Amino acid sequence: MQLEFLGTGSGQPSKFRNVASIALKLLDERNAVWLFDVGEATQHQILRTTIRPRKIEKIFISHLHGDHIFGLPGLLSSRSFQGADKTEPLTIYGPKGLKHFVQAALRVSETHLSYPVKYVDIQEGVIFEDATFRVVAAPMKHRIETWGFRVEEKDHPGELLVDKLQADQIPAGPVYGQLKAGKTVTLADGRQVNGQDYIGPAQKGRIVTIIYDTRPNQHIVDLARHADVLVHESTYGISDEEFKMARAHGHSTSADAARVAREARVGKLILTHLSARYVGVLLKKLIQDVRRIFPNTYVARDFDVVDIPFKKDLHES
Ligand SMILES: [Zn+2]
Predict the structure, then answer these.
(1) How far is CA 122 from CA 42, 138, 247, in A?
(2) Do 271 and 298 touch, CB atoms closer than 8 A?
(3) How far does residue 273's CA lie from ligand 1's centre (Å)?
(4) Nearest-angstrom CA–CA distance, 93 and 260
(5) Report field, pTM of the whole predicted structure over 0.70
(6) Residue 304 appears among annotated catalytic residues
(7) CA-CA distances (angstroms) from residue 212 to 5, 38, 220, 226?
(8) Residues whose Cβ atom is located within 5 A of ion ligand 1
(9) Separate counts of helices (H) and strands (E) for the chain
(10) Which residues contact 281 (CB under 8 A, 6 or more apart)?
(11) pLDDT tens sequence across 97-136
């Protein structure tokens, strides 16, 4: 599980920061990539990564401001020519109106996709769930309908302790499958063996929370609770003047993001959606200021790849 930042700027593209897009790479977990927002030229950014557009299984859109969606029609169109599976639908989750935007762009440009697209209007709560993942959405406080996302990987069941089975002279065979399922079985020699005694600890699933444009609100803390990684917008810096600007425009400051990270007890905070003016000394100062509130904070740059490892020993807590 990895995050790859495709665009980390706010509002309009700048030389070093394209507009919003993040890839959650779930290649080991489900051989798929999920995108969160698709700002203009996201497909150009993808060209500079190892991401294959045909692997994009789901796209989540936080809100309909242009810097978060203008790349979507182009990306969908190009994906038709990049070996997309013609039978597997791509699912796009977004606010009401997103389907209208995409379909209008495709219709007037006479673009025909080679694969089906499924649109899901986001409503508060669980918006996707299968055997391995769950995605929860909650409303944010921006100038238009906006959603925040929490991606939860389900816990992995423990491994079968083969060494221990062999040490206890339990011969390999179909019985291992039953023991792995936690069943009690009777061996050929008459011994009764409980599978629970031969299964290692379960591995806690990982949690990633992605928060784009919003004023601070309680839903962010709920979505971010104990997340391994919280990605949070940081359109404005820490000064009083920027605080006023953030509130006026429906945004957060970097200090707001850090306070959420602290309250929700996340593992790591990654700031994105930064103004182009944060370079050099200003950027250094911003990072220093934020780390005073939440030390494990990083500022994303375009093309940063962040590993999200399993937590160690969490099964003991
Ligand atoms: Zn916005």
Answers:
(1) 22, 9, 25
(2) yes
(3) 10
(4) 25
(5) yes
(6) no
(7) 13, 12, 10, 18
(8) 65, 213
(9) 11, 16
(10) none
(11) 999 999 999 999 999 999 999 999 999 999 999 999 999 9
